[in-house]
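Per reviewer request, we include the raw input and output of the structure prediction for the construct analysed in the revised manuscript.
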Amino acid sequence: MKKIGAWVLASILVIGGFSGGTPALAKEEVRTVESYILEDIWEHWGFEELDDLVNADIFKGFPTGDHEYSFKPDHLITRAEFAAIIVRALDLQATGEGERFDDIPVTHSLQAEIAIASDHGIIEGVGAGRFAPNEPVLREQIAAMIVRAFSDTVSFPAEGSQSFHDVASDHWAAPSIAKAAGAEIVRGITSTQFGFNKKATRGEAGVMLHRALQKETSNLPNANELMQIVKDSEVESFPLFEQKDASGLLSHNKKYLTGYQKALADDLAMWYFDDETTETMAFAAEPKLEMKQSSNRFAQVSLQGELNVRYQDRTTNFETTIDYHPVYYLKKTDGIWKIYYSDMPLEFEALS
């Protein structure tokens, strides 16, 4: 994902934006574009997956300044934190059917998420009525939690083909490790070693969760519906942009966008407009849309088309055609599909 390039480009020509501690995001928190640019994952081996989770508001990070965060991918992640992230990623709700642990008081910051994870059978205790929330989660525990959480939505093999030399066949987590490895959700630290009893980092946990989310296939979205959402999000923004209707654009963004894309679009809508300029845009012809990838909660839609753009200010007056072919990343949250990121390579060709 070329997030920095997209941000700079959108700041110059505002098109794609209108097509934008605890380890995960609280629903009520408002974030800015800067909040999504976590520089400490740029050189991480799992950058693409971790950046995607950040853009989609599944991982937030740790505050380092005003609206700024770091991911800390090499830091250990606790049992409570990973349980909470799964709950938030899957939009799970409380049922009251799970076990309540003696070491999780009502004042614990993740008490609600831990209770929900227990309700859905995702977590188990460590014995004597304890969950050990602040203990680092082990790689085999992550494998087990993922298999339990995604058992109804991911096609796990009955028996995994991968055999790790450091996993005893009679260990309680061995079946889960085999299933998760067979589904290519977890991988070993070498071709023969799983990394058994190894404490997991935030980066490792994030990548494994991302793989699982991409493999949910029990309730795939309708391709035509998602392509229509993408097209509508673009077409409905054009007159709002031409009319310099910042309030209308903010409402538009709330309807169609979420995560990074909404933060980008909202920021631009608040400061871009200038009474001395006139800009219009429209598709030169009907754009071609295609579903590139989909799972139960995530999808990618590509658009191939051209935009006619006109610009005028006190000193400049020109028309140009833009070869416009972004890829839109969508997520389903609370039953609604929204765009949380778009890659938008642009090529300009002046009209004669």
